[in-house]
Amino acid sequence: MAQPIKVVVTGAAGQIAYSLLYQIAKGDVFGDKQPIILHLLDIPPMMGVLEGVVMELADCALPLIHGVVPTADPAVAFKDVEAAFLVGAMPRKQGMERKDLLSANVKIFKVQGQALDQHAKKTVKVLVVGNPANTNALVCSRYAPSIPRENFSAMTRLDQNRAQANIAARLGVNIADVKNVIIWGNHSSTQYPDVKHATVTKGGVSKNVYEAVNDEAFLKGDFVSTIQTRGAAVIAARKMSSAMSAAKAAGDHMKSIWQGTDSGEWVSMGVVSDGSYGVPADIVYSFPVTIKDKKWTIVQGLPIDDFARSKMDLTGKELLEEREEALAVCQD
Ligand code: NAX
């Protein structure tokens, strides 16, 4: 059997982690032959709750788990980890402005970037889930200069999964028959869910989603706004934010990094922009990527029409603003 790898999950006492830990622990992410030592980080007041999570992990009786290390100390949590799920962040409280949330959370990601820099393996793959995920990932990578920037990514896979599910339901096909949906930009309500390059297979025949849906008004209107506001719709119904689906998406994202993408398929993730598609460089922007040997490559050469251009620019502009706010907070 392979040597165990150390995997950290932050916000380990929270609701996303509660679903995510089981997926990781049973082999859905790193494979069913890969033993794991789980490092669980949360803040000191949550140590009692975390102890309960540790008890439940033990009671799951999962043979891939070769150790569990609950801690409130980032130095312990990030020690020698090869994969990091950065889920923990401060939730938005009533009366809190987006700016206040950004300012509280980027500070957390500055500290965790520094801890990763000092303690993690240099090959560590870091997935940022905690919001504002794209800008937190940028901050985290900036404060971990000894780790390649390409190793940091932000989660837009939940948005991708939502878009894929919406189209599959609309066309009455299985989710697996819809491929290459793209999320461009920020994991926020400015994101641009794009099916112009997506395909659907029905009765053995593959077709472009745009042609199959055959309703441009829907694809440019309700579809886009439904995906952009899906998180708020879940909160309104459940009185809590998406957790099961967010955990599934986090597992999917890291699995894509670990095991690569299938031939002819791409996935969306927030990565440090190199200026592809005229997107500003040096922001964490969600692009379509293919992955091989744990390295991503932005899919090049997709034609961008005027509608897509305006949506892609808008979400890029928001990310530039977030970057300025975040860097100012970090310098305080
Ligand atoms: P919870 O509030 O249930 O859990 C968060 C946990 O993080 C808590 O246990 C808290 O104590 C812990 N925490 C806070 N500060 C910490 C720190 N400095 N170090 C370690 N742990 C810390 O939130 P949950 O529903 O699990 O959501 C977690 C984050 O995911 C939030 O920021 C949320 O906004 C974000 N989301 C991101 C999504 C995405 O697609 N990128 C979608 C789902 C989710 O909304």
Automatic annotation (TrEMBL):
Residues 5-152 form the Lactate/malate dehydrogenase N-terminal domain. Residues 156-328 form the Lactate/malate dehydrogenase C-terminal domain. Its EC number is 1.1.1.37. One of its GO terms (biological process) is malate metabolic process. One of its GO terms (molecular function) is L-malate dehydrogenase (NAD+) activity. It is an enzyme of class 1 (oxidoreductase). It comes from the Eukaryota. Keywords: NAD, Oxidoreductase. Belongs to the LDH/MDH superfamily. MDH type 2 family. This is Malate dehydrogenase, cytoplasmic. It comes from Frankliniella occidentalis. The chain holds residues 76 to 407 of 407 of the full protein.
